[in-house]
Design brief:
Length: 119
């Protein structure tokens, strides 16, 4: 059995605060926040389309917010406006199917995590 992980984060309203850190958290970079905005994020999952990113998803939790957010997946979806020929439209459909499959995998992993399993 491994010891519980903790991390000390600087906050604007409470100074340095030591908090539990889930094993899936990738760290706490960036400027200090107020305690309610301190959050944990997991590895980013990215699906690309053309020259851009079509889907970005990552595990997050905001344990100290006014309304705490348990482990959840934050999703950003972006498909630029394009006019497509038949092969291009088929390619976009393929990317959308891949995105749906990735979201389903993340949903299953999140369900396991919330049930007390490992990410």
């Amino acid at each position: 059995m491994t010891a519980a992980r903790t991390v000390t984060v600087p906050t604007l309203d409470h100074g340095p605060v030591t908090i539990p850190e889930p094993s899936w958290c990738t760290g706490h970079a960036g400027p200090p926040d107020v305690l309610g905005d301190v959050h944990h994020t997991g590895p980013e999952h990215v699906v690309r389309y053309g020259d851009g990113i079509a889907l970005r998803a990552e595990l997050v939790t905001f344990p100290y917010g006014e309304t705490p957010v348990p482990a959840s997946v934050h999703v950003e979806l972006h498909v630029p406006d394009v006019t497509l020929d038949p092969p291009g439209l088929e390619g976009l459909a393929t990317v959308l199917v891949e995105q749906a499959a990735e979201l389903r995998r993340l949903a299953l992993r999140l369900a396991v995590l919330r049930a007390g399993g490992a990410w």
